[in-house]
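I had to read the description of the data format several times before I understood it. Each protein is reduced to its one-letter sequence and a matching series of backbone shape codes. The format is easy to grasp once an entry is in front of the reader. For illustration, here is how one protein appears when written out as sequence plus structure tokens:
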Amino acid sequence: MTEKHGSGGALEGIRVVEMGQLIAGPFCGQLLGDMGAEIVKLEPPETGDPMRHWGQGDTPSWWRVIARNKYSVAVDLRSQEGQSLARELIAKADILIENFRPGTLEKWNLDPAELRKTNPGLIVVRVSGYGQTGPYSSRAGFGGIGEAMGGWRGIVGYPDLPPARMGVSIGDTLAATYGCMGALAALHHRSKTGEGQIVDSALYEAVLQVMESTVSDYSASGTKRRRTGSTLPAIAPSNVYPCRDGEYLIGANQDGVFARLAEAMGQPEFARDSRYATHLARGARQEELDALISEWTATMTIAELEAKMIAAGVPAGRIFDAEDMLADPHFAAREALVTVADEELGEIRMQGVFPKLSATPSSVRRPAPLTVGQDGTDVLKRWLGREGSDA
């Protein structure tokens, strides 16, 4: 991989200072970096971002994903010298990202209001558990807490078991994604006015935004959504069904699609049967219908069932894991996975850049910085025009 400062991406020329740690702030930086922005990550000199050590397996590699396209500068934000250097860099930046507890920047003499006096076009993305205002704003808040308060955790799992987690840090990444969206909107506003602004992205609100009609249903009729395992109430058929060699997901709840599924099952009359002919009727007999489909799918292998679903035009799919993704031709054709050279791990595979832009494609231009502060001299020279090291 050949590194280049000019990316050709949609955000080429945009400079970002990232102060965040762990997931939410750094994921926001990853998204902006993939789109071409230059990301300078400020890390504590001794320890760096804890994400350097996160992941699973003998060689955790999450850092390689979340820190790609970034430059590491070691800065002790608790010291006057570090705060001074941070202010100098922020004065040259378009966007500042942080995900500390509200009030932390102010305590470090980095109040966004003061920073914007020096740099009026500065956009500050602030990601936190509960937002910058309100009675809970000063509380510590991780992604799981946001998922619980936003309603996600309460509906994931089975009704006879405690709430389950998603399996990935969805609260953090949602809040980061909304922070990125806010930054892009703020850049558009700045292009017209020259003025920056604050983007306040709360973990619980990011989760709340994707909770569909849970609040509205309760407001309108007193209905509370409950944990229902692998199904959605009254949406049928839409479930994971057993095959001889595993499980397979079928989503055929729309009337026309259900008719095609019934034909593939050799039971075309199901589409005309008053018990199953409409969305409401199928929803009322969800368990009964799932049992009929499961009895049919259990007679086939996944490959046999998939061939039938493709031929019938029924939305359906295998349950993929990482090994399946690496072997799949569609992933390869769309470059959904990319290869990044790594000095320690060799070539490493990871998710590509999304969404795909036709005129200004995003890219992975450089691997994650292996050591804390490795890019300090380079960044200080290019951004500040001076020789020196980190602070």
About this structure: Residues 15-210+331-384 form a domain with the Rossmann fold fold (CATH 3.40.50.10540). The first helix runs from residue 24 to 34. The mean pLDDT is 94.
